[in-house]
Amino acid sequence: MTRKSEAASDPASFETAIEELEAIVRTMEDGKLPLDSALERYQRGVDLVRHCQSALNA
After folding, report:
1. With the C-alpha atoms ordered 50, 9, 36, 33, is the resulting torsion angle positive or negative?
2. pLDDT tens by residue, 17-32
3. In the chain, pLDDT over 70 holds for what percent of residues?
């Protein structure tokens, strides 16, 4: 999934975003991702955190 298509697929809810973020953290903590995949997951995590912060500030 590219960054552009990920940005277009914002999570349906705060809870969905948190669940996806937790899954990303588990995957990255495993340490088995290639660097390029880890960087993509990291960026998706940053986008999810921003989405959650916006939801909390609304």
Report:
1. positive
2. 999 999 999 999 999 9
3. 86
Determine the length of the chain.
58
Q: What's the N-to-C CA distance of the chain in angstroms?
A: 28
Domain ranges of the chain: 13-57
Q: Which of 27, 30, 56 is nearest to 44 (CA)?
A: 27
Distances (CA, A) of 36 to 19, 29, 41, 44: 22, 15, 9, 12
- What is the CA 28 to chain-centroid distance, rounded? 11
Tokens at 6, concatenated: 């990920």
Q: Cα–Cα distance between 17 and 34 in angstroms, integer? A: 23
**Two tokens, residue 36:** 């390029």
